[in-house]
Design goal:
The complex is a heterotrimer of chains A (about 220), B (about 240) and C (about 55). Chain A has about 220 residues and is an all-alpha fold. Chain A has helices spanning about 1-20, 20-40, 45-70, 70-75, 80-85, 90-120, 125-150, 160-165, 170-185, 190-220. The model of chain A has no long low-confidence stretch (mean pLDDT about 90). Chain C has about 55 residues and is mainly α. Classes of the chains: A mainly alpha (about 220), B mainly alpha (about 240), C mainly alpha (about 55).
Chain lengths: ~220, ~240, ~55
């Protein structure tokens, strides 16, 4: 069982490593979207500090949505997905493995880039640390919920835009708790409450999302 | 009573046809009574003047928007569990009406907020959750519209609907939490503590009218969907011959 | 009876725009939905009849 999970994850990482161009696009998208905001609202430091956590978080949502389109699509096109669904292992494991791989490939780089972007927004060091922590708890949620959307829109025309429409409303709690944690540090009310709620939401997504996206895969493939 | 008998499209179609006029008539009568109460019997509110009369559509529309989403989820769950075609048709027929009521709730909320709070839009917990509920409706309908194969379209929409219904309470809680942190108690929707009984009755009757309307409209839509999907069957073919 | 005249009824104590703006748009939504539904039903019937007449030819 665990071997199957690791095989799915390793395979996706190897495929991503061979196609570095695609992978870099999502990361640069993240950096660019965040950098556009100061140009739009002006360089006033206190204003940037107020909007900073929210901007970084919204950009993280969009960046993870951008890479979701390819989560199952390549395997679906060449027929691998169908074979994997027919394997003797539960499909939930396949969906979980895919989501974990997506997080390792696209979520972790966001964590590493985020502090640099936080500095652009004048965030103090303790807020930067909480920003990374909140993204560390939050980005797996984005991958897990996103895998449902990717599975539902598999092989559809304009699937990429459609995923955004389906999944963004479901991301709302993650956005609120994640950006709220950083704001809690800035305003002095503390981040613990936000982070624990975010953790609870992660646990729930971890329990339910792979199961739902396995069902969605079956609906889309059959 | 045999439920499977009514779950067959061939028996449901004429049954729905007979029921629609009754629900439509009930909706019309209840609306007339509700409007009479809202404009001629309910007294002027001592704080909000005549402007409060918007609640007679705002509150029922908001109730219906949430209620319809839950009813859709109920049909989706039944459809996924027992593979009944009719449940998917019902879930799909309800979605546009639910989205319409969500839009009405948002619109009337804005028209109420302007004179009462001085702004068309306030990021109040309830208005914000209602907006996100609207997005959820749009998502389900967009997904259903994007898939041509009816079988896959039904199931995909039902799954998204169920994920949404699990998420709605979480979203409401998170938005409320966010709202209390950011705005304190500067804006509060709570009405005068002792709302006159007649106002409550007005809202209840308008809500019932909206309920009957939703059933009638959903049944009409379900009938259209059914004949479209069953067009290869004998009973639809003979139906097409009967009617000129 | 709450209202002294039709003018007072339409003015809604100064809230006319908001009250009638809300009720008007609601009415518009409902009428629009019914109209769309009717059109969809008629179109479905016509299309199915056409398909059937092609079948029997």
């Amino acid at each position: 069982m665990l071997r199957f999970l690791f095989t799915v994850i390793r395979r996706d990482i190897m495929l991503a490593a061979r196609r570095r161009g695609d992978w870099l696009t999502a990361q640069f998208f993240f950096v660019m979207v965040v950098s556009m905001f100061p140009l739009g609202v002006g360089p006033e430091p206190s204003m940037l500090r107020t909007i900073g956590p929210g901007v970084v978080w919204v950009a993280a949502l969009l960046a993870s949505l951008l890479s979701l389109g390819r989560l199952f699509a390549d395997d679906f096109r060449d027929g691998t997905l169908e074979q994997m669904l027919l394997s003797p292992y539960p499909n939930t494991l396949l969906a979980l493995g895919k989501a974990i791989a997506h997080w390792l490939i696209n979520g972790i780089p966001l964590l590493l880039i985020a502090p640099v972007l936080g500095i652009q927004f004048n965030l103090p060091p303790e807020a930067l640390w909480i920003l990374v922590l909140s993204l560390a708890i939050g980005t797996p949620i984005l991958s897990l919920l996103g895998s449902i959307g990717a599975a539902l829109t598999l092989g559809l025309r304009g699937g990429g835009v459609l995923v955004t429409l389906l999944i963004l409303p479901l991301y709302v709690p993650a956005l609120i708790f994640g950006a709220g944690a950083v704001e809690g540090v800035l305003s002095g009310t503390g981040a613990e409450a936000h982070l624990s709620l975010l953790g609870a939401f992660l646990m729930m997504s971890l329990l339910l999302a792979p199961w739902v996206s396995a069902m969605a895969l079956k609906v889309s493939v059959e | 009573m045999n439920l499977y008998y009514y779950a067959s499209p061939a028996t449901f179609y004429p049954l729905a046809g007979r029921l629609i006029p009754w629900f439509a008539a009930l909706a019309a009568i209840l609306t007339a009574v509700g409007l009479y109460i809202s404009f001629f019997m309910a007294p002027t509110d001592f704080q909000q003047g005549e402007g409060y009369r918007i609640i007679f559509i705002h509150v029922p529309a908001a109730w219906m928007s949430m209620f319809i989403y839950v009813v859709m989820a109920f049909w989706s769950a039944i459809g996924l569990a027992w593979n009944t075609r009719l449940s998917f048709v019902m879930a799909r027929s309800l979605a546009p009406t639910g989205a319409m009521f969500t839009f009405v709730a948002l619109w009337t909320g804005a028209f109420w907020g302007k004179p009462m709070w001085g702004a068309w839009w306030v990021w109040d917990a309830r208005l914000t959750s209602e907006l996100i509920l609207f997005f959820l409706y749009v998502g389900v309908m967009a997904l259903q519209a994007a898939i041509d194969d009816p079988r896959r379209s039904d199931r995909a929409g039902a799954l998204l609907n169920l994920v949404g219904v699990i998420n709605v309470p979480i979203i409401y809680f998170s938005v409320k939490w966010w709202n209390t942190l950011h705005q304190g108690s500067s804006v509060s929707l709570t009405r005068a503590p002792s709302m006159a009984h007649i106002m409550l009755w007005g809202m209840l009757i308008m809500a019932l009218a909206a309920w009957m309307y939703s059933i009638a409209v959903a049944l009409v839509r379900a009938r259209s969907l059914i004949i479209e999907r069953e067009r290869q069957t004998d009973w639809v073919r003979s139906l097409l011959e009967e009617k000129p | 009876m709450n209202w002294e005249s039709w003018g007072a009824f339409w003015a809604m104590g100064g809230y006319g725009l908001y009250v009638w703006g809300s009720f008007g748009v609601t009415l518009l939504c409902i009428v629009g939905e019914i109209w769309l539904l009717r059109r969809h039903r008629l179109q479905t019937w016509q299309r199915l009849k056409r398909l059937k007449s092609w079948d029997s030819q």
